[in-house]
Write a structure and sequence with these properties.
By secondary structure, this protein is α/β, with parallel strands linked by helices. It folds into 2 domains: 3-99 and 224-242, NAD(P)-binding Rossmann-like Domain (Rossmann fold), CATH 3.40.50; 110-220, Rossmann fold (3-Layer(aba) Sandwich), CATH 3.40.50. The protein has 7 helices and 12 strands. A 6-stranded parallel beta sheet has the order 3-2-1-4-5-12, with helices on both faces. A 6-stranded parallel beta sheet has the order 6-11-10-7-8-9. It is elongated and about 60 Å long. The protein binds NADP nicotinamide-adenine-dinucleotide phosphate (NAP). Residues 7-10, 30-32, 34, 49-52, 55-56, 72-73, 75-79, 82, 135, 196 line the site of NADP nicotinamide-adenine-dinucleotide phosphate.
Length: 243
């Protein structure tokens, strides 16, 4: 019998869970537990890390998992690496459901950087008004450029003080729209946006807003993940599961 482990935390994973539930397949949706109130899902849920590759291997064996779907965020590379290794070791088939990256078009003013440390370096120079649209995890590193006025958009209100001396926080959960993000950038008089190349529709509004306003973007490219099967749509994963 099919028993799916769905590695989640994304819009794609939520859509995948709906398809799995609709097909009447048995599955568990796994959250890392980064946000305070993760969205409910139409299949079983578990929350928290597995304990590295070994922990994941043990979980796959214990739960009798027959298929793993990695629908984590393209920047959740550690989880994706662990899934490749654990699935290979346990001979459990793995499929990644991953959105295509954004590609710069007419009017985009992107500077590509390989990781968030390089994004920090790219902000060296005189004070600017920066929309740091990268989530909570890597914000601390930007304390190395304390001269800027930062705008942060976070899913949860920060607990404790932020490492950035001049930061305004907007608490909001995507998806976002272009009109709203254009107003946000205008309101903050943003001079540069720092973003991760997440791809997909939910977070692209800030990129479109930057383009419309002629604001440059420091674009953090995706981290590397070992070779694995990747598809772009829920229906392709369903075909793999049921084919
Ligand atoms: P990461 O750096 O790749 O993972 C670090 C560790 O967190 C993993 O080794 C694993 O712990 C645990 N983990 C990650 N995803 C998990 C999942 N779905 N279920 C159970 N454990 C998980 O991941 P991250 O960048 O911190 O992202 C964490 C979660 O947030 C992911 O589910 C991702 O889809 C979601 N997310 C991330 C971003 C982003 O920009 N990174 C954006 C939106 C949503 P163990 O080694 O103990 O198993």
């Amino acid at each position: 019998m099919t028993r799916i482990l769905l590695l989640g935390g994304t819009t794609e994973a939520n859509l995948m869970a709906q398809a799995v539930a609709k097909a009447g397949l048995a599955g568990v949706y796994s959250y890392a537990g980064r946000t305070e109130a993760p969205m409910g899902q139409p299949i079983h849920m578990r929350i928290g890390g597995f304990g590295g590759v070994e922990g994941l291997q043990a979980y796959l064996a214990r739960e009798g998992i027959t298929n793993v779907i990695d629908a984590t965020h393209p920047f959740a590379a550690q989880m994706s690496r662990n899934a490749v290794e654990a699935c290979a070791a346990q001979a459990v088939p793995l499929m990644a459901l991953e959105r295509a990256p954004w590609v710069a078009g007419d009017g985009d003013r992107w500077t590509h950087v390989p990781d968030s440390a390089a994004a920090v370096d790219a902000l060296a120079g005189p004070p600017q008004r920066v929309f740091l649209a990268i989530g909570r995890q890597h914000i601390d590193a930007f304390a190395a450029q304390p001269q800027h006025d930062y705008l942060l958009r976070l899913v949860d209100a920060p607990t404790g003080s932020l490492p950035l001396p001049r930061a305004r926080v907007v608490v909001a959960r995507g998806p976002f729209d272009v009109a709203g993000d254009t107003a946000l950038l205008r309101d903050h008089a943003t001079e540069v946006v720092v973003a991760k190349n997440a791809g997909g529709k939910g977070a692209v509004a800030k990129i479109a807003a930057a383009r419309a306003l002629g604001v440059p973007v420091v674009m953090i490219d995706r981290p590397r993940v070992p070779e694995r099967r990747v598809v772009r749509t829920v229906s392709e994963v369903m075909a793999w599961l049921t084919g």
